[in-house]
């Protein structure tokens, strides 16, 4: 079984903030001591960090839940609880992180050591020392910690390579990669010998270097799921130059030019923007008897069917077996890379806007619905957060929460919807009576 994994869906949960404390000074010579309860500590963030030593998302195959620690509770003498350590999660270079619910791209992690906070920890709840006022110098009110952010993420690995090798199975891509780099891909005389992307570094005679990826599974109908389908086509999206390898000997009875058209058609179906990448046609297996004649016919068809306003791709006849023409091909590839810019993978519509962790003014603070058992149900992010951060063990805190609901207009809205005195109202699993 292949140990290469390039997609994963995981859940992350940042730490909750620590609860604030209710405490009072009780020192021998301090009569009527005031409030002394400290704030809770901050919950830990979940942070992704790029690790260049990782090559796949295999670590996420069996471990799909990541939860940071919560902050410590506040203490007496006004002392804060300790904030929790961030949870560090290592990911390979080239990992794209999407919100699984919205499909928006959160970040594209490509630099070694790059960090990104995918879930923010909650702030600590305030202790009763924060609620002291001239009217209420000894409050018995404290807050619970703010809940940490929780979300489901879709991870997608797109390997970092400057050049991508594409072509039908058995045209010699793996052999070419093994000859021009130190990579040791599996090579066999049958289709789908290569079932995972292979990566290698090339150094030309002039001292230029670049990364090359051999991408498997591309055959006619791949974009409709034939063969390995589009399973690994995502890895070509980061490349700047495509080397289109063609078996010019036609050893399997196919027409080289038809192969060329078929592969380009699959690239276009998968992602039209892949056609923006400059291509170099690699006419492989030129050591075979029929190759020279086939190459001549191929060039004639290419010229005859190409738009006169478009630039014809370069064609390099090579033989991976005899190493014929390789240095010329590599020098031309390095030269093309030098003048080819990076391609933008995502447009603004695919990217999530800069994160904002407050409340959107346009979003209603609460919503009212009614369950089948005739209980009124209150929901909404702002209301549910207030509910979660309320310490229901303290009478004063409960009264404060009731005043907050009234200030948000919940009472008036329930009355307008037809709520009567004594009706049950539910927030989460908590129920109380509506008092008109």
Descriptors:
alpha/beta, five-stranded mixed β-sheet, 8 helices, 21% strand, elongated
Task: Quickly describe the structure.
This protein has 436 residues and is α/β, with parallel strands linked by helices. The protein has eight helices and 18 strands. It is elongated.
Strand order of the largest sheet: 10-11-9-12-13-14
Average pLDDT across residues? 88
Count of DSSP strands:
18
Instruction: Enumerate the spans where pLDDT stays under 50 for 5 or more consecutive residues.
Output: 189-193
Structural class: alpha/beta
Rg on CA atoms, Å: 32 Å
Number of helices in the DSSP assignment: 8
N-to-C span: 66 Å
Question: Any overview of this molecule?
Answer:
- The structure is a single chain.
- Strands 10-11-9-12-13-14 form a six-stranded mixed beta sheet, sandwiched between helices. The protein has a five-stranded mixed beta sheet with strand order 3-1-8-5-6, with no helix packed on it.
- With 436 residues, the chain is an alpha/beta fold.
- It has helices at 59-62, 173-180, 256-270, 291-304, 326-338, 381-388, 395-408, 410-417, and strands spanning 7-13, 46-50, 65-67, 87-91, 95-99, 105-109, 115-119, 150-157, 163-166, 198-203, 209-214, 241-247, 279-284, 314-317, 367-370, 376-379, 424-427, 430-433.
- The N and C termini lie far apart (66 Å).
- A hairpin with a 5-residue loop joins strand 5 and strand 6 (105-109).
- Helix content is 19%, strand content 21%.
């Amino acid at each position: 079984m292949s140990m290469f994994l390039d997609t994963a869906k995981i859940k992350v949960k940042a730490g909750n903030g620590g609860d604030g404390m209710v405490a009072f000074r009780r020192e021998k010579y301090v009569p009527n001591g005031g409030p002394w309860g400290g704030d809770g500590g901050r919950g830990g963030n979940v942070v992704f960090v790029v690790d260049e030593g990782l090559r796949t998302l295999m670590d996420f195959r069996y471990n799909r839940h990541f939860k940071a620690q919560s902050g410590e509770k506040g203490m007496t003498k006004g002392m804060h609880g300790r904030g929790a350590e961030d949870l560090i999660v290592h990911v390979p270079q080239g990992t794209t992180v999407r919100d699984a619910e919205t499909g928006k791209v959160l970040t594209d992690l490509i630099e070694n050591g790059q960090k990104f906070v995918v879930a923010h920890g909650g702030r600590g709840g305030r202790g009763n020392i924060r609620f002291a006022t001239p009217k209420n110098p000894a409050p018995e009110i404290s807050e619970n910690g703010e809940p940490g952010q929780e979300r489901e993420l879709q991870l997608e690995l797109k390997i970092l390579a400057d050049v991508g090798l594409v072509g039908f199975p058995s045209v010699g891509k793996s052999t070419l990669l093994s000859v021009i780099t130190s990579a040791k891909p599996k090579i066999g005389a049958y289709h789908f010998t290569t079932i995972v992307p292979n990566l290698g570094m090339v150094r030309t005679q002039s001292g230029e270097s670049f990364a090359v990826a051999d991408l498997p599974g591309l055959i006619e109908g791949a974009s409709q799921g034939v063969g390995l389908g589009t399973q690994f086509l995502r890895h070509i999206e980061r490349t700047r130059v495509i080397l289109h390898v063609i078996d010019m000997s036609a050893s399997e009875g196919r027409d080289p030019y038809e192969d060329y058209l078929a592969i380009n058609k699959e690239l276009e179906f998968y992602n039209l923007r892949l056609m923006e990448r400059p291509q170099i046609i690699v006419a492989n297996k030129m050591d075979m008897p029929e190759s020279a004649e086939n190459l001549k016919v191929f060039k004639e068809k290419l010229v005859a069917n190409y738009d006169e306003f478009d630039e014809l791709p370069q064609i390099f006849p090579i033989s991976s077996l005899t190493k014929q023409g390789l240095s010329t091909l590599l020098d031309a590839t390095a030269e093309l890379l030098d003048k080819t810019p990076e391609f933008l993978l995502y447009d603004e519509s695919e990217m999530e806007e800069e994160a904002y962790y407050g409340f959107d003014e346009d979003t209603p603070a609460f919503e009212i619905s009614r369950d089948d058992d005739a209980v009124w149900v209150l929901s909404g992010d702002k209301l549910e957060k207030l509910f979660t951060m309320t310490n229901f063990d303290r009478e004063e805190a409960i009264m404060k929460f009731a005043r907050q609901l009234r200030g948000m207009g919940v009472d008036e809205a329930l009355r307008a919807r037809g709520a009567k005195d004594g009706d049950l109202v539910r927030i989460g699993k908590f129920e109380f009576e509506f008092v008109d």
